[in-house]
Amino acid sequence: MTRTAKLSSLLASTTALVFLSACSGGSSAPPAVSTTRPPASEFVFDTTPSDSPLYTRVDRTGAPAVGTALLSRATTVTVTGVGGGVLNPGISTNTFDDQRDQLNRGDPVNDARDFAGVFVAGPQPNSLKNIHFKIGAELRALGLTPCSTVPAAGAVTNADVNVDACVAQAAPVILPDVITYDFNAPEGFPNGRTFDDPVVDRLLSAALLQITPTGGTAVPHSLNTLVGVLDPWNGPVGAACPAPCRFTGDETGLALPTAFPYLRPILP
């Protein structure tokens, strides 16, 4: 007998039993009605739509400091969207219309389309072109090789600065502004991010220095060349900090705990 046939037979027998009981004329009391509520669901899900104004993206954590370093906080400098209006305009829970908040409110899938040009040569004083125009000579004086190039006579304005090589090597790291992870590659920013990764120092190297070969010449720097410039040096006492520095992170100088919750002692 199939499962369906067995179920039909069981239902038929149950129905017959109910009718026979009702017609028996017995004086037994009707069964008590249960007042016990069914168990509550183990999980309660919020059904608020993802585009609800109740949700406001106020920051990004993909590549920290990108918006701070390359975008303006001034409300007089904004990014123009389609139709000439303000791109990603302010809403009731985040009313600021500056470049950084515009980036934060946007969707990462549109980062390259909406912000690549602004990062490189926007009107803000800290665009990539302006940064190289202002400190390129100082980088060379320090014995570093910028990823930008200028005419032999020098740069008169930021228009004379070519940052194409900088864009080619930095764009894959910062656009879109999300954390990516390749399970087949060693972990560590920009492949994922561990607790003590010198993220900002590596971003500076990618945006400022020549870390990829150009014209068949040897690569003068690496992604780790500036490690230790901003991130604290936590190597053994008395040890130097040869690039790439292996000991960076927390100011205590203590090694990162290897067990959950991976917290160092509280600072005094």
Brief summary of the model shown:
Helices cover 29% and strands 0% of the residues. The protein is built from 7 helices and no strands.
Helix/sheet category: mainly alpha
Order of helices and strands: HHHHHHH
The average pLDDT value, as a whole number, equals 78
Helical content band: 25-40%
The biggest sheet amounts to: none
Q: Give me the count of strands.
A: 0
Low-confidence stretches at least 5 residues in length (pLDDT < 50)? Answer: 2-27
Outline, from the CA principal axes?
globular
Radius of gyration: 31 Å
Approximate strand percentage: under 5%
Number of helices: 7
Alpha-carbon distance between the termini? 76 Å
Characterise this structure:
With 268 residues, the chain is mainly alpha-helical. The protein has a domain at 66-208. Helices cover 29% and strands 0% of the residues. It is built from seven helices and no strands. The protein has helices spanning 3-23, 66-70, 99-105, 111-121, 128-141, 164-174, 199-208. The chain starts with a helix and ends in a 60-residue tail after the last helix.
